[in-house]
Design a protein that fits this description.
Blueprint lengths: L5 H5 L4 H14 L5 E2 L11 H12 L12 H15 L8 E4 L1 H13 L5 E6 L4 H8 L3 E6 L10 H7 L4 E7 L11 H12 L5 E5 L24 E6 L12 E4 L2 H14 L5 H12 L3 H22 L14 E2 L10 E2 L2 E2 L3 H12 L1 E2 L1 E2 L9 E4 L4 H16 L3
Parallel strand pairs: 1-12, 3-4, 3-5, 5-6, 6-7
Antiparallel strand pairs: 2-8, 7-8, 9-14, 10-11, 13-14
The protein binds 4'-deoxy-4'-aminopyridoxal-5'-phosphate and glutamic acid.
Length: 397
């Protein structure tokens, strides 16, 4: 075991990346795997964005960048928030980071003290509880099942708040469920949070543009919350730029200072060339974003109809992101040969080994009764995956 710290020992590895890696290992052995594990757009980054990066290399954007990001990118983030979300954030209220992941982790590290409770409406993304644990905080899961479309109510949040509650991490459109909170739902949640100003809101809006029900709503649209919220966003999902690693946080100046201090010791300013590309992503034409959104919607319709044909799967209608999160506990207790399915992680492993389809079990999203499919892949692959899944599941007795 060497000398690994308790901190790292307590940390769970990222289940999304673990399944993605397993899928890659099988593919490297020559096995044809349909990979629906990791959530990343299968599209290439639009050409005009790539060209901006090429030009940045030519123009020698090769030095350390300012820790909180180049001012022109912070301005592009601020303009984006105004133009698309109607939110007023000055460039000085933005910190650019190495992906939305670092932006989230910065905020958690900046505000959570050991023993502080952080509310996690759940199912939630695998990294939230681990970030809270890294900061010494206590993740407090508020569970919403498929019967409530995986969305927590304001009353559930109110009931979970204690004197130790320091923050809430909320994601809409959601990974892993695809659920999207309506303006009315957010308004009633905002009312509870305003009454509890010690609860800081971390609003993860990375799937903003992959929304099938209309315009994006954010808790930040309620001005009473302005000093109590950080908005997290980035370029990974909307612009098919997962590898470029650009995300940002918009929030009060005291939080900007704290994140800047952390980042200055931990990673420095993020990649200079990627910042140029991100500026063009935010400031440039948005037609590609809409084109990709439409493709995701067609795939959503396809995967929902295929999943509804699978015996024992209970399927909601995801309204955003690119995930389907069916309830699959019908299969628990069943077996095929020496393979016994006790939970959805077993089921994910079974589908990988027997069906050659990579998914992610629901346990690390806080829902062991569900399994996650990323449909950021072609319609042909989605069809092939469900043909294989139906065949593999039919073997379970
Ligand atoms: N939040 C959620 C809910 C996500 O699914 C992801 C996906 N990686 C992220 C944040 C992080 O995005 P990024 O690639 O910008 O770090
Ligand atoms: N957010 C994506 C997912 O959930 C990418 C992997 C990760 O960062 O966890 O699959």
């Amino acid at each position: 075991m060497g000398q690994i710290s308790d901190r790292v020992m307590r940390l769970a590895a990222s289940a999304t990346f673990a399944m993605n890696q397993k899928s890659g290992e099988l593919s490297a052995q020559g096995i044809d795997v349909v990979n629906m594990s990791v959530g990343e757009p299968d599209f290439n980054t639009p050409d005009y964005i790539k060209q901006a990066a090429v030009q940045a290399v030519e123009e020698n954007y090769s030095k350390y960048s300012p820790v909180a990001g180049y001012m022109w990118l912070r301005k592009a983030c601020s303009d984006k928030l105004k133009r698309e979300n109607g939110l007023d954030y000055q460039p000085s209220q933005i910190v650019v980071s190495t992906g939305a992941k670092q932006a989230l982790c910065n905020v958690v590290m900046a505000i959570v003290n050991p023993g502080d409770e952080v509310l996690l409406p759940s199912p939630c993304w695998v990294s939230y509880p681990e970030m809270v644990k890294l900061a010494g905080g206590v993740p407090v899961v508020i569970k919403a099942g498929i019967d409530q479309d995986f969305k927590v109510t304001a009353a559930q949040i109110e009931a979970a708040i204690t004197p130790k509650t320091r923050a809430i991490m909320i994601c809409s459109p959601s990974n892993p469920t695809g659920s999207v909170y309506s303006r009315e739902e957010l308004e009633s949640i905002a009312k509870v949070l305003v009454k509890n100003p010690q609860v800081f809101v971390i609003s993860d809006e990375i799937y903003e543009h992959i929304n099938f029900i209309g315009s994006h709503n954010s808790l930040a649209m309620f001005p009473e919350l302005k000093d109590q919220i950080a908005v997290i966003n980035g370029v990974s999902k909307a612009y098919a730029m997962t590898g470029w690693r650009i995300g940002f946080m918009a929030g009060p100046e005291w939080l900007v200072k704290a994140c800047n201090k952390l980042q200055g010791q931990y990673t420095s300013g993020t990649c200079s060339v990627a910042q140029k590309a991100a500026q063009v992503a935010f400031d440039g034409p948005q037609q590609d974003v809409e084109n990709m959104r439409r493709v995701f919607q067609t795939r959503r319709d396809l995967i929902v109809s295929l999943a509804r044909e699978i015996p024992g799967f209970e399927v909601n209608m995801p309204q955003g992101a690119f995930y389907l999160f069916p309830k699959c506990d019908y299969y628990f207790g069943k077996k095929y040969g020496d393979k016994v399915i006790e939970n959805s992680d077993d089921l994910a492993m079974y589908l990988l080994e027997v069906g050659h389809v990579a998914t992610v079990g629901g346990t690390s999203f806080g829902a062991p009764e569900c399994i996650r499919f990323s449909y950021a892949t072609s319609e042909d692959k989605i069809r092939e995956a469900f043909r294989r899944i139906a065949e593999a599941l039919a073997k379970l007795q």
